[in-house]
């Protein structure tokens, strides 16, 4: 593999495993903890977050490098990135409502809340801070989305199994969910050293 392609591929796999946006950086926890009760809902939100994360990282890179920097407006990146994400999420929301009303109803308030999912904004800010090129930014966004999707699917599967388990009364609900999230983060930390993009 050529060195020009090796770096973006490394960024892609690192963003899924060793630098998982959710379990290594703790971004996007609110919707992760709330929606991960059922596998079907988790799949729908995971796909939506992955799609939005990959696409907005690409769009925000283009806006940043071809509009904000040439006009010396890079100090507005927070506001502009949020506007791009909000506009794109509105489009995704309309498409999901047309294609699958059941999924739209099950996602409820969490679909428009993708707009304020800090993981999506975090990916766009990380790509600027780390000075990624266009391909690296897209693969970082796509990999981060897949990492978030992997984490929410694992949590949904575990929470489905926990419905049949006897859990101490004081740990039911949020308590056991946060403990499991911490254990998942420790498991993903086991990948550290294999790939690193910081």
What descriptive keywords fit this protein?
198 residues, mainly alpha, globular
The 3D shape can be described as: globular
Please give the radius of gyration in angstroms.
18 Å
What's the order of the H and E elements?
A: HHHHHHHH
Q: How many domains would you count in the coordinates?
A: 1
| Helical run tally | 8
Mean pLDDT: 87
Structural category: mainly alpha
Q: For this entry, what is the oligomeric state of its chains?
A: single chain
- Strand coverage percent: under 5%
From the N-terminal CA to the C-terminal CA, the straight-line distance is 22 Å
Report the strand count.
Answer: 0
Spans of at least 5 consecutive residues with low confidence: none
Helix content: 55-70%
Biggest sheet layout: none
Short description:
Helix content is 70%, strand content 0%. It has 198 residues and is mainly alpha-helical. It has one domain.
Structural write-up:
This protein is mainly alpha-helical. The chain has one domain. It contains 8 helices and no strands. The chain has helices at 3-16, 29-35, 39-68, 77-99, 101-107, 118-129, 134-162, 174-189. The two termini are 22 Å apart. The model has no long low-confidence stretch (mean pLDDT 87).
SSE diagram, text form:
Layout: H1 3-16, H2 29-35, H3 39-68, H4 77-99, H5 101-107, H6 118-129, H7 134-162, H8 174-189
Helix pairs in contact: 1-7, 3-4, 3-6, 3-7, 4-5, 4-6, 6-7, 7-8
């Amino acid at each position: 593999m050529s060195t020009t392609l090796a770096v973006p591929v490394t960024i892609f796999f690192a963003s899924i495993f060793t630098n998982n946006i959710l379990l290594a950086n703790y971004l996007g926890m609110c919707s992760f903890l709330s929606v991960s009760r059922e596998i079907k809902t988790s799949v729908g939100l995971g796909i939506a977050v992955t799609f939005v994360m990959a696409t907005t990282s690409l769009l925000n890179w283009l806006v940043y490098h071809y509009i904000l920097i040439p006009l010396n407006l890079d100090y507005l990146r927070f506001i502009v990135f949020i506007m791009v994400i909000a506009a794109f999420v509105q489009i995704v929301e309309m498409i999901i409502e047309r294609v699958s009303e059941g999924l739209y109803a099950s996602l409820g308030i969490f679909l428009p809340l993708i707009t304020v999912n800090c993981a999506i904004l975090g990916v766009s800010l990380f790509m600027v801070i780390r000075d990624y090129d266009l391909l690296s930014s897209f693969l970082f966004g796509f990999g981060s989305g897949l990492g978030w999707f992997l984490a929410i699917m694992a949590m949904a599967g575990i929470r489905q199994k926990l419905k049949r388990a006897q859990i101490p009364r004081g740990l039911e609900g949020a308590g056991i969910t946060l403990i499991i999230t911490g254990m998942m983060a420790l498991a993903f930390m086991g990948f550290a050293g294999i790939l690193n993009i910081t």
